[in-house]
Amino acid sequence: MERILRNDRILVVIALATLSVLAWFYLVVLTRDMAMGDMSLMGMGAVLARWSPATFALMLVMWWVMMVGMMVPSAAPMILLFATVTRKQSGDENPGPRIAIFAAAYLLIWAGFSLLAALAQWALTEAALLSPMMVGNSEWLIIALLAAAGAYQLSPLKQACLGKCRSPLSFLLTRWQPGDLGALKMGLAHGAYCLGCCWLLMALLFVGGVMNLFWVATIAVLVLAEKVLPRGDLVGRLAGIAMLVLAAYMVVTNTSP
């Protein structure tokens, strides 16, 4: 146990794995209760009624937990490398707080996205474009989201952000800043690149269902593949082409006599 406590890498892996597992456990339990018609968990019954501040707060928590479960695995290589470099530079000083600051700053960026996602869900629900079960019920909304996500997958901005996410060492070499404040700034910067890489993919949750675990897992696997596979950038481009083809097919079938 003493050897484990001295190995920051093992502790970081355990912490990240625990965080991801807890997030997915929350989503599984929530989805199961919704499927069984038990919407009482954490006040989820309010989703079926008119939105209130309490409903919005619950949806914000749901989105953030979902982002944690989806994004932490793909961010793990960056966090682990940061932990390794921080340990070597800190000497006898405990690097744990600085690693925690970096990871928390990264998750703070996704908390901001979760706020915007909850606002979008609220607006779509009020406009009757989203069902009470959080699935898009407008074919044109689905077409627009697929087309936008597909086009963004092929855009230079997407590729630039993805390049930063795929190269943790390059990110640290070019953006390294010492101290706790440096860890905060780097965590925010990496989170911003990650958000720039994936935000429109997350918007696709409105296509397949925000609480459709298979759909959530599919997007999470795509994000992970883009970031860690040897030709992950190609995987992302192929996925974008597939989205555009599907959007075009839906337009044709929707407008044909």
Q: How large is the count of helical segments?
A: 11
Extended strand count = 0
Average pLDDT reading: 85
Radius of gyration: 20 Å
Query: What class, by secondary structure content?
Result: mainly alpha
What does this structure look like?
The termini are far apart. The protein is built from 11 helices and no strands. The chain has helices spanning 2-6, 8-35, 53-90, 96-126, 139-153, 156-166, 168-175, 179-203, 205-208, 213-228, 232-255. With 257 residues, it is mainly alpha-helical.
Describe the structure concisely for a colleague:
Helix content is 80%, strand content 0%. It is built from eleven helices and no strands.
What secondary-structure arrangement, pairings included, does this model have?
Elements: H1 2-6, H2 8-35, H3 53-90, H4 96-126, H5 139-153, H6 156-166, H7 168-175, H8 179-203, H9 205-208, H10 213-228, H11 232-255
Helix pairs in contact: 2-3, 3-4, 3-10, 4-8, 5-8, 5-11, 6-8, 10-11
